[in-house]
Each structure stands twice: as C-alpha cells, then as structure tokens.
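Two entries, shown back to back:
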Amino acid sequence: MLLWLLDRLTVAWPDASLAALGKITFRASLAAMLSFLLAVLLGPRMIAWLGGRFREPIKSDSPQLKRLHRDKQSTPTMGGLFIVAGLIAAVVAFGDLGNRYLQLALLLAGGLALIGAVDDLIKLYGSGNGISRRSKLAGQLVLATVVAVLLYQHHAVLPDGLLVRLPLFGGDLPLGLWFIPLAVIVIVGASNAVNLTDGLDGLAGGCLIFATAAMTVVTYASGHAELAAYLDIPRIPGCGELTVLAGGMIGGVLGFLWFNCHPAAVFMGDTGALPLGGLLGLLAVACRQELLLVIVGGVFVVEALSVILQVGYYKWRRRRIFLCAPLHHHFQLKGWGESKIVVRFWITSALCALMGVAALKVSVKDDSHTIPTSVTAAEAPLRR
C-alpha cells in the first residue's frame, strides 16, 4: 500500500524526495512497529474475545506436568490469530505485493494458520489431542510442497537460485531438483520445531525473535548485490523484500510477548506456532541458507531432536533419555523454575543467532573482497 501511494505521489510531484520512504529497511521498521502496535493495542480485546470461546485445557500424560501447569488451566489460547493478522496487515501495508517471495509467504502463513486453528479447535472441543499427527503432517507437507515448487520455478532462472550455502566452511552445493524436498523439509521441520518449543510462557516467542532477527540480516544481505558479493553468499534478487515480512514477524511476536510473558494471559497455540515456524523456514530457503538456520535456530533444533530421541529410544529400548520431552519439560521436572528455563533458553537462542551471523563473516576473504562504496550510498528508489 505504501509503495502504491509513493508511486502515485512521485508521478504527481516528481521533484519531491520520496525515495527514502520506499527503502526496504524503512518499510521493515514500519512493519515491525505496526504489527507491534496492533498486538499491544488490540491484544486486550482479542484476549477477552478468545477467553470467551477458546480456553486451553491442560492435557498431559505426565501427572507431574499436570501439577506444575495446573494454574494454566483455562488460559485463553489461539493467540496466534492476532499475531498472524497483524503480520499480514503489516505486509499488506508496507510490502511489495508484486514480489513472489511475499506472495508465497502470505500463502504459507495463511495455510499453516488454518491447519493450526483446526488442530487447536479439535483439542478444545474434541476428546483427543487435536487432529492426528499423520493428518497434520500431511497438510503441512502438501502446503510446503506447493510453496517449494513455486519457489523452485522462480529460483531455477537465477544464477545462485539452486545453490545451498555451506556455513563456516564456505562454498556452495548445487541442488537441482533436490531444492524441492530440501525446502519442504526445512519449512515443515521449522514449523514443527517452533510448535514443540511452545510449551512455557514466552519460550517460543522469545527464541523466535532472536532467530528471526538473525535471518533478517541474512535475507537483506542476500537481496543486496554489494553485500552479497562482500559476504560471498548467494545473490537472490527480490529476496530482500522478505525483510519487511521479518520485521512484521518480530514486531508481532514482541507485541504478543507483552501478554504471553509469565504468567501468560494468552497462549499462542498451533494457530501461531505453525505459521511462524514455517515462515522462519521460508526465510532460510529463500536466501539459500537452510544449513545456517540449524545454527541460528539451535534451540528449536535441540527441542525437536529431544523429542525424536526420546520417542525413538523408548521404542527401541523401552527406556527414556530425558525425564520428559521436549527438553524444556526435562528441566522443569529437574526442579528448575519456569522463568529460569525461559530466560536461559532465550540467552542460548541469542548466542545461536550471534553465531549464525558471525558464520557469514568466517568464510569472507578480506584480502580479496572490499566493501564497495555503493553499499553506503542511498538505496535505489522505492524497491531496493
């Protein structure tokens, strides 16, 4: 919407200096502020509305966890509705809707939010723990495959579009058609990893902010010709527009944390965790940094691995590795307070994000690359 308005103002007043208002960095900042303000200002009304319809039942196979979480019984859930709504509003207001990456992001966010909402509703009004794992995974796979195929068609014509970057060591690997299954794995894996992490007040939200902030830097650099050349990373034209999406994600989650910090007034639910995780995966796929996401999202990776190891080892040896999985519940049962677990996981997530950004610089050969003076020059009007 902002770009549309600026285009028309430029035609009407060609001498007006409006280029700065169309810069990606400026629009991303506006998107973050808008999604944050929408969440904070509309949050109380949304929480009251959710509280009258959708209250979280505490369902767990562990009597200890039920006891520890008894105070959370009947907390309003499906708060992801106002995160996703604010995010979409920010993207529509400040993004270039003609950009293929933003179009796919909106498709992915809406589709995963719908799957999450169905799952949450069945948990609330059904006798089970939501839709079956196979059905939910099937829905995620179908949606992710559609996005991956459309993204492949777009990337296939780009010189670096089908490369996957090797962090720390430098260099790239060509993927060809393997781009599609890798993209599906990353998007679905990130979606479920964030969902698994969403088990304590503020845990998933805080970790998401750090991971998304790191991927924002990478995404912007990938879409910027000079920065991509300096950092020796794949140059993906148009990818920088996802910075606006990332800004909306950060602002929306920050606003949500205003109400989700301990003791939480509202839960995110699958309605929020699935799309936010999926979008984090999409950021990595779009800028060809799927392997870097393993470092940046280290907390999510470890949380998901703890569940996989726990289930696999129990099926194999009928014994458990952890007191409870995901990992944050293991520390709960060891006697750690909820706030202590959340803050320590946040710290770990921040360190992972810093490591990921630092990994970009490790492979840069300073003797053969210099930052062009054009990097500090004004960005191209409106869409740079």
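entry 2 starts here
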Amino acid sequence: MIVVRTWAVALTGLRGELIEVEADITQHRPDFRLIGMPDKALAEAVRRVTNASENSGLKLPDRRLTVNLLPASLPKQGSGFDLAVAMAALATDGRVDPESLARTVHIGELGLDGRIRAVPGVLPAVLAAVRAGRPRVVVPHENREEAELVPGAEIIAAENLAQVARLHGAELDDMVIEAPSPPIARAISEPRRDESLDLSDVVGQPQSVDALIVAAAGGHHVLMSGPPGAGKTMLARRMPGILPVLDDEAALEVASIRSLSGERVTGLTRTPPFEAPHHSATMVALVGGGSRKAAPGAIARASRGVLFLDEVAEAPRSVLDALRQPLEHGSISIHRSGFTASFPARFQLVLAMNPCPCGEFGVAGATCTCSPADVRRYAGKISGPLLDRVDIDLRLERVSRLGEEGGSTTSAQARETVVQARSRAAERLADTPWRTNAEVGGRWLREGPRALRGAARRTLDSALQRGLLTLRAYDRVTRVAWTIADIEGRGTPNAADVGRALFLKKGVAR
C-alpha cells in the first residue's frame, strides 16, 4: 500500500512548524498506532478519530494502521492534529484523493460524532502554513474568521469530518447525516476599545499629562508614585488611547497571541493592548508557561501595547525581576524539556505604587502611620536594576483644587502629538534597526552620528560624574531628551531638553 500524506502545524510559542502526517496500513491484526512524540492529549486522538470516522459513515480499514508525525523528534501537543490524523488514516484505503490531501493543511479537534471543534492558535498556525508554501488550509468553522485574516491563505471552513472527506473526493452514502457544529462558547470575548477613557478626564495634573505624552511618544517605561486618589490608575488606563494605531504587522501579531490564548478573534484590532494583572499574580501568570504547553503570559499579551502593574510594591520581588530580561530584549523565552517557546515582549511598562504602606507619607495635611523603616522597606521592594530600566519617574500629588473645566488635552490631540513625534524619530532612525527612541542602542546614542554635543552633553556628563546616573540611566535620559526634542520639532536636543529629561528621570512634582 502506498503511504499517504497530509499536513498539520505544531506551535511552539508563536512559531509554527509544518508537520507531515503520513499513514500506512499493513496486513496484520487490526490496530491503530500514533507515533512521532505525541503528548497525552494527542495520543488520545486514536479513539476520537476511530469513533468520529465510524459515526460519519467512514469506518477505518480493518487492518493495522500506523500514523506517523514528522519530524518525529519535535514534541507535539494538543488536539488540533485530530483532523489531519483522521484524513491520513481514511486515505490509506483509497477513498479520498491523495493529491488533494497532500496539498492541504488540516487543523481541528474531532468530537466523537464527527464534529470539528475550534482550537486555540489557528491564526498563527495558518500564518506558518502560508509562510511554508502551503496556503490551502482546512479549519474549524468556528475559527474561520481569524483564519481568513492571514493574507494569501485559501481557507476552507468545515463543520464535520464528512464535509472534509467529500472535499477530498470521498463518496458517502446520501443517508449519512453530517453532524452539525453548534456555536462553541469562548471564555473570553472580543475586546472593545473604551471610548469613554479620554485624557481630558484628568484634571489638575498638567505636568503628569505632559509626562505621559512624552512616554507614549518615545515608547518609554514609567513609574508613577503617589498617595491613593492621585490619579495613577486613571492616567495608566488612558495610555493606550494616545498611542499610535497598530499597523498590519503589529495587529496580526497581537491577534495571533490572543488566538493562542484561546480568545475569540474576529478581526484585527488597531488599538494597542492593555494588560493589568493583579499584584498577586504569579510568575507563570506574568511570564507564561506550563508543564506541557507554553501559554503566553501577561507580558506577551501586552506586546505592542501597555503592561500596567498597579500596587507594584505589593508584588513579589522575584516576579518583578522577571521583567528585566524582556524589557531589555523585547522578547521572552520559556524553556521546557524538549522545546523552547519564544514570545514577543515589546511593551511599555507602567508601574504604580503608593509612597508607603498606608499611602500617606509626604502628603500635605495627612498623617503617616508608618515608621521610617517601613517606608524604606516598602520603597525597596522594587529592585535597583528594575528601577534603572524605568525612563520616567513620575511623582503625583492629590489634586487640591478643581478648575471650572476639565483637562485641556484630549486623547485625540495627544495621539496626534505622539504620531508626529514618532514620525520624526522614525525618519531620523531610517538607516538603523530602530524606530522609536526607547529602542535605540546606548553606544549609538553616545558615539553615533547623532551623539549629543555642547551644553546638552556636558549636562549629562556632569550628572554621570557626580554619581546621579548609572551608564544605563545616562542612556535612558538621552533617549527621553530626544523624545522631548521630537515633540517640540527640534532637530537635536538642547540643554533644556536634557534638563527636563533628567527631571523626569528623578521625578516630577505637580
């Protein structure tokens, strides 16, 4: 008997690898074996495929059937291989067209009645198939909308096994009833942009609003500290609304991560994502992972957007220190036995904390009940290396007087300022691998063709010599100074821009 082949996709993080699914039957005692390093969920596909085939009027050959998943050395997880295994097995006795099967990728989980159920990660799987030169992909009907988001893909959505068999030329009894695929409820619904979160809602904090615009324009990380009620959370939640809309590549990346997380994806959202995990979140919840399958954590889900950590001083220090590597490299790798999963981590970090456990330290007219040791211990929960990676240290005070009107800057106005500043930075960095000021390498900043000169350079050098800045902080202040210059429309930062950047790094008082 000729060995028949079809294709599936194995996902490791966001990276998909095409899997060759080959099947053969021999004249031995009836058996069904699945080989090629399947995990437990995939190994159980033998029973799902057997029952689904019989209940669809497509009983498997009554001989020894072997299905192999290549490359055999790559671990494979999940039930998304069911459909490919079933079609390869059914093709061994010639009931379906092997040529049609060989040029098609199959993704989907089978129910015992033959239904094809939705699976997570269809979007990155289809993207991997198209990039590998296999654009013809069969997907569950529930995943059709997200699969069709991939440019160049030929998507065939199916509700049950009988439909796929007929697609490849199988002749079924007209009496066979194709099992319908009822809508499958998803735990997480399509995210919607909250238009009510406008920057003009922030009153009495003009310097804080300006600092937030600087952070958005350059892609800088921010730490906001101040007493309860000062507006830290209000400012953070309005950050995505002033960021530029996502381009096609970024929107597809965000949608792929959402798909891999099991969310319902019906289109490409242009709004940058916003993730705000609770301060009690574990390291796995933040970083991602799992024993058998590496799932994206809050860091990956915030990529291309904002990761907001409120009450950051209450979080375990080990969890916070896990942020240091992705902040530097823009990606995060999860190592497990047999595989390494990588996820993008290009996010803006926004931290918020109180000045002390009771929240009243340094507040005019309030009484702090914390001892000096408690205040030092509370502030020391954020490690120096993490603080060194923060570009803007924003100190807020409670609003003590309300004006007659709300804030003077709207989100639309701020976003226009941010877009123009980023456009200037991208034009200046056109011949480099960077596009925003926060990404620029330190050596290029200090020694490259755009290195600061004159009074601007002397101001920074003096702060470094006096020990006010580390070398990493020196570079971060320089990046913020370039962002301020871009907002003001200047070709290079002057001494005033550097002075303001130093002020933002040390803390802004309202």
